[in-house]
């Protein structure tokens, strides 16, 4: 698995699988997965979902259960990670993986695949935490819950793997929208908007022929429609 912030590395027409894990703690060596959720996205549309709670074969600390709401009784009859992981890897296929603070999720996936004696295919991984820092610098917090508040994204249940995937998907839309933003120039005389390419080609307004300096009228309009996620 390779975590990248370079969106140019992503092959065209890629599927994205946005994933989230809930665990018994923060240590990939000593703690275990209790829930896996993922959504497959193609051309901006969710096409498949994966959700499975996992028996960690150990007690879940009460302070951790208080965060994600999963208790021992909830996973007592669930399959173990040895049963779940092959199915989950099949779901991933050859997609580009996406997670918020991806090193956490990727680390747990890698550790558990090795623990059950499996081999991990190569994946490109996008980390929305790092990407948001790159594309939206200066925000007071880059936690997923605070980014959701900043962008007006609905959060139904924080630290629920299913809902966290949906929030992460919305963050990814904002990231691609910022990358694909369109630059316009506004004529200071008549208000006409022209694209960056049109302005650089003629250097005057195609409507009123104004040749005034437009520098302070450069505006940026993010495109939230038609992006690849």
Features:
single chain; 229 residues; alpha/beta; Nucleotidyltransferase, domain 5; six-stranded mixed sheet; three-stranded antiparallel sheet; disordered C terminus
The averaged pLDDT comes out at: 87
Q: How would you describe the shape?
A: elongated
> Could you say how many structural domains there are in total?
2
CATH class of the largest domain: Alpha Beta
Strand order of the largest sheet: 1-6-5-2-3-4
In angstroms, what separates the terminal alpha carbons?
Answer: 21 Å
What sequence of helices (H) and strands (E) makes up the elements? EEEEHHHEHEHHHEEHE
Percent of residues in helices = 25-40%
Q: Would you tell me which CATH topology of the largest domain applies?
A: Nucleotidyltransferase, domain 5
Percent of sequence in beta strands: 15-25%
Low-confidence stretches: 218-229
Number of strands: 9
Quaternary assembly:
single chain
For the record, the CATH architecture of the largest domain stands as: 2-Layer Sandwich
């Amino acid at each position: 698995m390779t975590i990248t912030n370079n969106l140019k590395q992503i092959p065209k027409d890629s599927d994205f699988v946005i994933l989230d894990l809930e665990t018994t703690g923060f240590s990939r060596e000593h703690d275990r997965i209790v829930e896996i959720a993922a959504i497959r996205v193609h051309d901006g549309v969710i096409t498949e979902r994966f959700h499975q709670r996992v028996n960690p074969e150990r007690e879940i600390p009460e302070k951790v259960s208080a965060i994600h709401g999963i208790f021992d009784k909830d996973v007592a009859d669930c399959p173990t990670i040895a049963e779940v992981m092959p199915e989950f890897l099949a779901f991933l296929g050859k997609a580009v993986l996406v997670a918020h603070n991806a090193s956490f999720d990727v680390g747990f996936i890698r550790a558990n695949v090795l623990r059950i004696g499996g081999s991990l295919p190569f994946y490109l991984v996008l980390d929305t935490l790092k990407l948001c820092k790159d594309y939206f610098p200066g925000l007071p917090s880059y936690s997923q819950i605070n980014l959701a508040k900043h962008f007006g994204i609905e959060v139904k249940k924080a630290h629920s793997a299913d809902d966290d995937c949906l929030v992460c998907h919305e963050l990814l839309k904002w990231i691609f929208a910022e990358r694909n933003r369109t630059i316009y120039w506004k004529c200071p005389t008549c208000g006409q908007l022209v694209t960056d390419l049109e302005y650089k080609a003629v250097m005057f307004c195609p409507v009123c022929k104004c040749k005034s300096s437009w520098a302070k009228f450069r505006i940026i309009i993010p495109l939230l429609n038609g992006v690849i996620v």
